[in-house]
Amino acid sequence: MFSMKKVAAVTGAAAMLLSMGACGNKDNEAANGNVEIKFQTWNLKNDKYTPYFTSLISAYEKSHKGVTIKWIDQLSDNYEEKLSADAAANNLPDVLDANPSLMFGLAKAGALMDVGKEAPNASKNYYPNAWKAVTFSGKGITTAAYGFPWYVNDGPMYYNIELMKKCGLDPDKLPVTYDDYFADADTMVKSGCGAFMSTNTASDAADYASAGVQFMSKDKTEYTFNTPKAVAHLQRFIDLYNQKGIPPEALNAQWSQQGEFFQRGSIIAMGGSAYSAADFKQNSPDLYKNLAVGPKITDEGRSATVSYEMLAVNSQTKHKKEALDFAQFVTNSKNQLEFAKKSNTFPSSAGGLDDPYYKKIDTSDLQGKALAITLKEVQTGYSSRPPQFTDAAGSQYLQQQVALAMQGKQTAKQALDKTVDFANKKLK
Amino acid sequence: MNDTDISVGSRSEASVSGRVEPSMKKLEEGKPRKPKRSIGTILAPYLFSFPAFAIVFVFVVIAALNTFRLAFTDSTLLIPGKFVGFQNFVEVFHDEYFWTAMLNSTLYVVCVVPFMVILPLILANLVRGNSKIMGFFRTAFYTPVVMSAVVVGMIWTNLLDSKGLINSILETTRIIKHPIPFLTDRWLILFSAMFVTIWLGLGYYMVIYLTALANIDDALYEAASLDGAGPVRQFVSITMPGVRSTMVLIMMLSTIAAFRVFNEIYVLTNGTAGPGGEDITMSMLIQQQGTGIQARTGYASAISLIVLAVVGTMLIVQQIVQKRGED
Hints:
By secondary structure, chain A is of the alpha+beta class.
């Protein structure tokens, strides 16, 4: 005879096993036979953007009977790890949001659809520079557009007016070129005001491209940023570091740390986004009143730091037609404009920048000035960072080698030669 | 009485009865009868332990075997590679960051382990007892153990930064003219991280020592006290020998943890492994190579196997030295 205790024990164990088995039992399709599209965004589910996406999805579902959109949002941190885990498990969402650097690895592994081939007329719906940013080429990858361009951003340089005055600089005459920038840095160092110019150490592709250095060959088969011009450019930063014009912490700081330096009044300038002004206004109102904005430092007369976000379609999606259609719906001119206005970013859809909203930007306050400067950058600038120059494939190595050069452990030429050699080996 | 005694007893009883049984049937009847067990009773322990075994099998055994397999391929996370023999190992030994990581991790073991073995023992000796004040100190020392790596990172970054609390105090009191580069100098980052590791681990190992100390007979201390032994002599002659096996255990645990250090360096350097990556450790190297969309899983697996071999060798050497010491 089974005692009640034993029956309960065996039932409990069996239930545990069954529940474990159920963990892996998934069915993406809605029970009623509808097509379900998984749409993944990157850190966009919050009070500011949730109403927009809810309304967007609702509008799409209403006009596309039988299609359900399941919106997933991933947190900002570890997004790459999340994408790579999903890709390795062949579990990528149908439509996903990321920047070209993250998308490149997925495209190279065949995880993303060639949308130029599947939607041959789509390219004309976007600005040429935006379409170029989502078109990947080079070693080990078939040249193709691996997603639809979404929102675009860049940003001005923010300056601490009080600190500038303290260091003998004129806030009404902000630097535009690198000559201006280093002249101001020289004045600042000589003043002995104890501040630093910025955390910029010339450890990013854009730092070289904006100084007129060709970062990569046109066919994307090799890196070319170890030219005498690039070495001379890096040397200027090394000299500034040695004159204590760059904080030592900049050598192992991530991009996000420059905001901390700026907010506590350690550095005079920082590169930001158009929406940084709104953040300053909300989080540091005193600092906001004490800020000036100017264009990004460049010798080329145009910004090299335009960043594009893109929506890609999973190459393994079971609902190719619906996924392609939804991705184009999200990135169409009307929806891009609405999102861009909410987020202080810019549309990549053709004609989007001609919208009356961008013709009448109120430049009487800092936010408006930042938006106006960024608009010009987006209109004329480009993305200089090749998508294949990822953290693992050279970007982090460049930062490390530059740091060693700043510390005097190697020359500027050695730092760039080593990085070019390292990054070229990763191109296969 | 053991099993042998029972069988002998059974035979004796048969002899006493005066009937020598020739047939097997009779012999079987004479054996003690096993109680009947239901199928549920037999299966229950296996069913209960199956989930744990399954988890260990999938996430430890299969993962370890897969790491071993991957180490000999040029796999990336998204592209299955092909067999490349020892190519990954050859590349590892030519990787400048591998040798930097090996040096840093080894230094970590050499510098941290002695403190991890001795300091918690001294601490445990000081806070043993049942008084409320001792309870407070035990809790206080254990608190860092339950802190998340992010919190620890924020605390120590704010303390050690060039404009952090420590530098500010030293500059205000005019002990130093320029800030000490705790977070920007290669060696100071490493030693700062070691300090954080010791600070974090003290409470954990202290608790293990407290358990071991509870097993030492108080009479030994009383006798030593009567013989005129002071606290230091008692500590060296009674406490340390009394917790010798625990010291060996902690030495092994802290050696493994120190060689695989990751969090402390990561949070103090914002994940960059210090200026120029000169503070990279073995675990950080594995993380850098083995994560992300372009992860080189084959290469990272080769480094993992080397770490396994090094840690294994360290433990074997420790065991040999320990045995010789006992002999």
